Amino acid sequence: xxxxxxxxxIVGKYTTCYGASLRKIVKRTEISQxxxxxxxxxxxxxxTYNTTSxxxxxxxxxxxxxxxQ
Length: 69
Known about the structure:
- It is elongated, with a radius of gyration of 23 Å.
- It is an all-alpha fold.
- It has one domain (16-68).
- The protein contains 3 helices and no strands.
């Protein structure tokens, strides 16, 4: 039987030379960095469009909705 790969977690890239307490601090910060932002207040303004065509398309749709109301 072959030995399985050990599951080391998110701070497995930092070896034992850094110490457990420092790795715990890094683990907390990296977990908070990689979590998805679920705040509904920020979600609307946080999105930025990469292309101008998408920006124009959304602006046209928004203006059409305002005109219909």
